[in-house]
Amino acid sequence: MKKSSPIQNEALRFLYSGPDGEYFSEIQKLVRKSKKIDIAVAFWGQGAAEELGLNNADKKIRIVCSLKNGISNPEVINKLMEIHGNEAIRQYENLHAKVFIFDKKVAVVGSANVSTFGLPSTELAMETAWMEAAVLVKEPVLLKEIIGWFDEKIWENAINIFPSDLAKARLDRQNLAGRARPITLFNYMSRGVPGVFDDPSWRMEIHTEEEFSEEAEQDIIEAREEEGIPEDDENHGEYEWGGDDGIKKGMGLISFHVPEEEGQVTYGGIWVCYSIHGKIQRVRKKTGFFPERTENRVIGKWTDFIRFIINQRAGSWDSWLNDYDSALLLPINEVLILLQQHR
Predict the structure, then answer these.
(1) Would you tell me which of 59, 77, 254, 255 could form a disulfide with 268, CB atoms 3.0–4.6 Å apart?
(2) Rounded distance, CA 77 to CA 73, Å?
(3) For residue 330, how many other CB atoms are within 10 A of its CB?
(4) How many CA atoms lie within 13 A of 294 on its CB side?
(5) In angstroms, rounded to a whole number, what is the distance separating the alpha carbons of residues 75 and 160?
(6) Over the chain, what HEC string results?
(7) Which residues in the chain come in under a pLDDT of 70?
(8) Other Cβ atoms closer than 10 A to 17
(9) Which residues contact 140 (CB under 8 A, 6 or more apart)?
């Protein structure tokens, strides 16, 4: 196949990888020439970001990646955060796109992740790398649509990356390398391993039934309308738990529901508070972060531990269940100590 050649003011151009392709070299050139770069690429590996020139702190860069299942190298993401600032690098768990936007004048939409397998820089690496392809876009109407997609669909819906996210990605990456069965949250916390929950802002939240005040109910309606979130969206939620000891923006929550009648607790997943609206705290679920299907394997252990916590911190299990709106919000350090005592 004849090597493609640059055409001035071209609207669209096909790129491909390999010794006679220009996928890597074209992106490298555009990175070098551009001042502002937006990138929505799912997975990141060692070496490619540096080869492309994305480690240049003079560039104004926004990156959205996926940390799901440990496929992205968390050390690469951490390094990019150190260079460009925590606010410049976000995560979108279900992202699988590979899109670059340069100075809002050129976009490259393709198949390659930012890794030496996706975008190899040497002929030797190209021999074992994936065969990738992309389209370079300058056509104004299509370019505007790509920019809008990044700004409105990806960047606005992506969330910040916390140290706990990187720690979990490291754990997932170890499991991926060894093809190990996913570790449960209960077993992870029982080990007392530092990493995921080093941040003292983490809380364990335990509740029976939650009733909102009339003011909070109105705030919920307003917040969901403003964000365009339907009522049945299971990945967003609300709390009415303000005050000095309540839920704050940026706080991570491990959620459990205790049924009114005797029985096993329900693990509600991991949530992060991303905004405050009036009397309510808006939370978003971290859907790949110790998911429900993993914890269901040890829900009996969780039930025993939650019963132990309530007996230690709320008088007794029976009296706590008799209160329709019982709730506890415990600092993660206290939870870890209780867990060691329970063992």
Answers:
(1) 255
(2) 7
(3) 16
(4) 15
(5) 16
(6) CCCCCCCCCCCEEEEECCCCCCHHHHHHHHHHHCCEEEEEECCECCCHHHHHCCCCCCCEEEEEECCHHHCCCHHHHHHHHHHHCHHHEEECCCCCCEEEEECCCEEEEECCCECCCCCCCCHHHHHHCCCCEEEEECCHHHHHHHHHHHHHHHHCCCEECCHHHHHHHHHHHHHHHHCCCCCCHHHHHHHCCCCCCCCCCCEEEEECCCCCCHHHHHHHHHHHHHHCCCCCCCCEEEECCCCCCCCCCCCEEEEEECCCCCCCCEEEEEEEEEEEECCEEEEEECCCCCCHHHHHHHHHHHHHHHHHHHHHHCCCHHHHHHCCCCEEEEEHHHHHHHHHHHC
(7) 1-9, 116-129, 176-182, 191-195, 260-263, 288, 324-325, 343
(8) 24
(9) none
The residues, ordered by sequence, that sit 6+ positions from 79 with a Cβ below 8 Å of its Cβ are 49, 55
pTM of the predicted model as reported, rounded to 2 decimal places: 0.64
The tokens describing 56, both together, are 């240049």
pLDDT for 90 equals 96
Domains and CATH numbers, the chain: 12-164 (3.30.870.10), 183-342 (no CATH)
- Mean of the per-residue pLDDT values for the chain? 84
pLDDT at 34: 96
Q: How far apart are CA 183 and CA 195, in angstroms?
A: 14
- What pLDDT was estimated at residue 173? 80
